[in-house]
Design brief:
This protein is mainly α. It contains five helices and two strands. The relative contact order is 0.14. Pfam families: DUF6687 (PF20392).
Length: 115
């Protein structure tokens, strides 16, 4: 997301942040570089934390996130009761994110810009 932000004219003083999935705060947010949110800001109401504007066009943002999720979840079927933490870590470890970044993401962004 940071590269997309720069590609679309971001000022460079913001960066995308994501906490581990074990936390209940926002999954992904745009933060000012060097500033960390307090616990109250992370887990409180969204109006209790700074919200910054992204330079990424909405269609490119949706395309990147959708591509990321689809790539990461491919081949998995829903499981009654879900997966344990060890299983989730193993699933994540096996995902070839370099392949997503080199192939699937550019294709998703091309499709977004053509639409």
């Amino acid at each position: 997301m940071n590269r997309l932000e720069q590609l679309h004219g971001g000022s460079g003083d913001m960066e995308w942040a994501a906490d581990r999935m074990v936390y209940g705060g926002p999954l992904m947010r745009l933060d000012r570089k060097g500033e960390k949110l307090s616990t109250v800001q992370k887990y409180g109401h969204p109006t209790e934390r700074p919200i910054h504007r992204s330079s990424i066009p909405p269609e490119a943002f949706v395309g990147a996130v959708t591509s990321f999720m689809a790539f990461g979840l491919r081949g998995l079927s829903p499981r009654r009761g879900g997966w344990g933490w060890d299983e989730l870590h193993e699933i994540n470890r096996r995902i070839p994110w370099d392949e997503w970044e080199a192939e699937a993401l550019p294709e998703a962004l091309r499709q977004c810009s053509a639409a």
